[in-house]
Write a structure and sequence with these properties.
Length: 292
């Protein structure tokens, strides 16, 4: 039977010992000393979530470099687990693209969770692994190699993999205030916005995620109720550039009125033909979001 750990799976002490390459007694001692978080069942058994392991791996490089991912997914073979350990994107890009096109959600989740667990930089997973894969899905659709519905299936498989990662991403206790992440009112592309959300949460921002098709004119209530310090607009495609530009101007006005810094990114920004007198910060990659 297929067994694939995802963000809500409860992992046993025995499997955690195998993953970290230590014995069960050590795992139990680490939970007692608080070095490794866990949850306890009614029967007092220790159980672990992926985010507990991710937090431990993030704080203990010695172990993250030699994690065994096999207990996490019984479909995983040694070669693939080594590609994840080495973050070998050259091999992983065609593999994940193929798994996305065949709607193999658990294979996509295993690669994303595995990369995050071995401390691979989240912005790099988004910039250097998932962006090329999503662009290839678009090219295959344009070249007629994928039908519209197959493009939907493949991109949604990636989107689901990203969304489940949200519960694995380690969020610092200290918060940095609120950040509002949106797309304009005619935009259906929200996968990059989800990536931005995770990167900001990983930095300690509380993210107000309104995602697809957000009518800017209606966001006054968000500024009033939540006073976000930062606003991130993701723009990938603008059906009507003039209307989109007018909406952008409205958003700019709101950011000015409510003292929020406006960040903009995405392949659709060029369509807005914004001139640099406009007060906003144009970011070109998820690494930029991480350093913004
Ligand atoms: C998935 C997808 C969809 C899905 C969206 C699902 C969802 N929930 O997101 C669906 C099926 C709904 C869809 C619909 C359409 N789509 Co579409 N879609 C895509 C696809 C395959 C991936 C989009 C994506 O997430 N890319 C990943 C991002 C990360 O890549 P990127 O933009 O290059 O990002 C880089 C930078 O821009 C930056 N970045 C990106 N976003 C952000 C945001 C911030 C804040 C920052 C700081 C940085 C940043 O970081 C990345 C660098 O590492 C693209 C192909 C492609 N090349 O992207 C087509 C694509 C964007 N779609 C396209 C089109 C034409 C459409 C439709 C009009 C098709 C139709 N006729 O119905 C509709 C329009 C819907 C609408 N009104 O928005 C075209 C757009 C062409 C253009 N720009 O003019 C593309 C490029 C396909 C193509 N090759 O032609 N689509």
């Amino acid at each position: 039977m297929q067994k694939t750990a995802n963000s809500t799976s409860l992992i046993s002490s025995a499997d955690v010992a195998k993953i970290l390459g230590v014995n069960v007694a050590t795992v139990k001692r680490w939970t007692d000393t608080g070095k490794l978080d866990c949850v306890k069942t009614a029967g007092g058994h220790r159980k672990f979530l992926l985010r507990h392991l991710a937090a431990f791996a993030m704080g203990h490089e010695k172990y993250s470099e030699r994690l065994s991912l096999l207990p996490l997914d019984n479909q995983l073979n040694l070669e693939l687990s080594h590609q994840i350990l080495r973050a070998d994107f050259k091999q992983l890009i065609p593999y994940v693209l193929d798994r996305a096109i065949t709607c193999d959600q658990s294979a996509v989740k295993t690669v994303l969770n595995g990369l995050y667990m071995v401390n691979q930089d989240l912005a790099s997973i988004y910039d250097d692994l998932l962006t090329p894969i999503l662009r290839s899905i678009g090219e295959m659709w344009i070249d007629g190699k994928l039908s519209v519905s197959e493009e939907h299936l493949a991109s949604q498989t990636i989107r689901d993999g990203i969304i489940q990662l949200q519960d694995v991403v380690v969020k610092p206790r200290k918060t940095q205030g609120k950040a509002f992440v949106l797309t304009l009112s005619e935009e259906l592309h929200d996968i990059p916005a989800k990536m931005v959300q995770h990167l900001l949460e990983q930095r300690g921002f509380q993210v107000l995620f309104s995602g697809q098709k957000t009518p800017v004119g209606d966001t006054v209530s968000v500024f009033k109720s939540f006073s976000p310090k930062r606003v991130y607009l993701s723009s990938i495609y603008n059906e009507n550039a003039d209307e989109a530009r007018a909406e952008f101007k409205e958003l700019q006005g709101l950011c000015k009125a409510y003292n929020a810094i406006l960040y903009v990114g995405g392949s659709g920004v060029a369509q807005l033909e914004l001139d640099d007198t406009d007060e906003f910060l144009h970011l070109n990659s998820f690494a930029d979001v991480q350093n913004s």
